[in-house]
């Protein structure tokens, strides 16, 4: 819950505007230096920082609010998860399609098992419904978080095999070298590494 008393309708209007701009910028795949530049611009933008300032109190509080609230939720929201999912201008490819692209046809996704941090679901193949796996996905920049979540869960007793899937875009493609490195790391950890390109 936010420590600032921002009216709900105002917060939604600002987040909707930000998510539209972020979609136009292909935000998920944007380098950190470019993200920083946009944070600075949005902080002083009358349509963003200017509308938040009366409720946040100080200009220096705007950027942390942006990062800790709408930005932190953006990837999940693009996949239809969280309270701000309806505000997303351009939803990401549904997980059921990501699984098919990563592993081929015949996989069933149990959306009842959807969890976050990282985004993950249980999947099973129609030819072997007894064998469940866990499918986790995130942008390439979060590969290490996927790998860590998998090994931490297994260390805590999760017996399911994990597929960790990195997602890129046509604008910012994962290189063959990055894919090969991911495969080597995943193999060393006893995980399956997959990769897909989002629309």
Provide a descriptive summary of the structure in words.
The protein has about 200 residues and is an alpha/beta fold. About 45% of the residues lie in helices and about 20% in strands. The chain is built from 7 helices and 5 strands, in the order αααααβββαβαβ. A hairpin with a 3-residue loop joins β1 and β2 (about 120-125). The chain starts with 7 loop residues before the first helix and ends with a strand.
Q: Care to give the gist of this entry?
A:
The chain is 46% helix and 22% strand. The protein has 199 residues and is α/β, with parallel strands linked by helices.
Which keywords apply here?
elongated, 199 residues, alpha/beta
Give the DSSP E fraction (strand runs of 2 or more residues).
Answer: 15-25%
Low-confidence stretches: none
Described by the principal axes of the CA atoms, the overall outline is: elongated
The DSSP helix count reads 7
First-last Cα distance: 32 Å
Q: What would you report as the Rg, rounded to the nearest angstrom? A: 19 Å
Oligomer: single chain
Structural class: alpha/beta
Give, in spatial order, the strands making up the sheet with the most strands: 1-2-3-4-5
Encode the helix/strand succession as letters.
HHHHHEEEHEHE
What's the average pLDDT?
Answer: 91
Helix content: 40-55%
Instruction: Characterize the largest beta sheet: strand count, sense, and whether it forms a barrel.
Output: 5 strands, mixed
For the secondary structure, the number of strands is 5
Write the topology of this structure.
Elements: H1 8-25, H2 32-44, H3 49-56, H4 62-78, H5 95-103, E1 107-115, E2 119-125, E3 128-139, H6 143-155, E4 162-169, H7 176-189, E5 192-198
Helix pairs in contact: 2-4
């Amino acid at each position: 819950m936010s420590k600032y008393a921002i009216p709900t309708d105002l917060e939604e209007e600002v987040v909707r505007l930000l998510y539209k701009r972020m979609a136009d910028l292909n935000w998920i795949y944007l380098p950190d230096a470019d993200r920083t530049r946009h944070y600075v611009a949005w902080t002083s933008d009358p349509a963003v920082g200017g509308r938040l300032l009366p409720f946040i109190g100080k200009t220096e509080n705007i950027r942390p609010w942006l990062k800790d609230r709408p930005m932190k939720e953006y990837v999940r929201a693009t996949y239809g998860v969280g309270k701000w999912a309806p505000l997303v201008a351009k939803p990401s490819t549904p997980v059921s399609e990501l699984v098919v692209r990563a592993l081929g046809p015949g996989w069933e996704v149990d959306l009842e098992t959807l969890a976050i941090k990282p985004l993950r679901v249980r999947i099973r193949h129609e030819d072997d419904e007894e064998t469940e796996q866990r499918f986790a996905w995130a942008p390439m920049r979060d590969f290490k978080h996927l790998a860590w979540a998998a090994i931490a869960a297994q260390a805590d007793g999760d017996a399911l095999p994990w597929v960790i899937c990195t997602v890129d875009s046509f604008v910012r493609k994962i290189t063959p070298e990055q894919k090969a490195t991911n495969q080597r790391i995943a193999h060393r950890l006893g995980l399956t590494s997959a990769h897909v390109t989002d629309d």
